[in-house]
């Protein structure tokens, strides 16, 4: 219902850029979402709709895989409830129209659990191989997938019945296969001084080690999860999590094997990230993989009455989202929006007609640059033009020296957009790389006659890629 109305998001454009610049891996994440976007665009052509179709198709496959996985643990009636629970959440809706590494991660995460179940509980040894492949592909989607191997080994350690599988060559063969499938990501990191692993770990480890308590981070994370799952499902999950932890800690009671299997792929991710929310800003999507088995567990406990309440919440929240997307009722003071990117591309091309033979660049890590790259028939640069780190733009292999002596147009988003005034000053790094910088009239984006976004524009003359 929402899909036809959603415009291009910066994340869509950035990961589409991945796919247009094929590589073994990428600076911020592995490349699976980029590969899928490239595949769909090769088949169906380049368009915003095809990007959304990619997300929708992969997420639909995830729901089907979830249904299959849940059928191993739930009766027909409870299976129906679990399916309703997952399809009423906002996090599934978001994944169905917004390109992120979580889109393929959840699919391969779920397939990993299906294959692991078959290998363990049905003793189908060939499924160890399939599990290894799926775990590797999950890692090639997002690094969070390392928790799959952790959860698998943790389950076997705590399971009296299946602990003997720790000595099975099939288990370790499966893990070896997963590592072989992951190899391209490790190779890319090796070739680039482990840039991605360092980026994803060093800053976060440093922040956590400082151990500064922040109630804002904690309540912010809780609010995000309440929104993604909706209150009924979130509270059910919190309730059974507390119940199982209490039994394990106070009574040393381990659940039966199938329930333990679900918990092994839920507790480390959910409780692990939840436990650091007071000292570190946990992003809203980090806990998503835990909800695959978490919702199956919720299906064991939730009543039909609560399921109906969840449906009501879902209808209300989805209608609010639909109204916002179609009518843009509440202005979004952020570049994380689907509004105005295509129009910005058109306006930027109009400016280039007045200032010919110029190149375009921006400075917000990836958002404006990625969106303009999608909509304009030319290369658009990021803040690496002025010597600043620019995520994967730094690894595209651009020779910036070919731009020497050329003029550029710098686009700077005014997130607070209150008036039509010029900015009055400019990025301090610009004067180091350009001989002269002149602010020109800002771009005002109108949607259906309504002013929705503003971009400051600077004409920069005589670029020097090596000013020092």
Would you kindly provide a written description of the structure presented here, covering whatever features stand out?
The chain is of the alpha/beta class and 468 residues long. 57% of the residues lie in helices and 9% in strands. It is built from 19 helices and five strands. The chain has helices at residues 10-20, 32-44, 48-71, 76-88, 90-95, 102-121, 126-139, 146-158, 169-191, 195-210, 215-229, 231-250, 257-264, 267-275, 290-301, 304-327, 341-354, 367-375, 430-433; strands at 358-362, 380-381, 407-413, 434-447, 450-463. It has a five-stranded mixed beta sheet. Helix 1 crosses helix 18 (367-375) and helix 3 (48-71) runs parallel beside helix 6 (102-121).
Short description:
The protein has helices spanning 10-20, 32-44, 48-71, 76-88, 90-95, 102-121, 126-139, 146-158, 169-191, 195-210, 215-229, 231-250, 257-264, 267-275, 290-301, 304-327, 341-354, 367-375, 430-433; strands at residues 358-362, 380-381, 407-413, 434-447, 450-463. The protein is of the alpha/beta class and 468 residues long.
Question: If you compute it from the alpha carbons, what radius of gyration comes out, rounded to the nearest whole angstrom?
Answer: 24 Å
Structural class estimated from helices and strands: alpha/beta
Question: What's the N-to-C terminus distance?
Answer: 54 Å
As a percent range, the share of helical residues equals 55-70%
- Give start-end ranges of low-pLDDT stretches: none
pLDDT average, as an integer? 94
**Biggest beta sheet summary:** 5 strands, mixed
How would you describe the shape?
A: globular
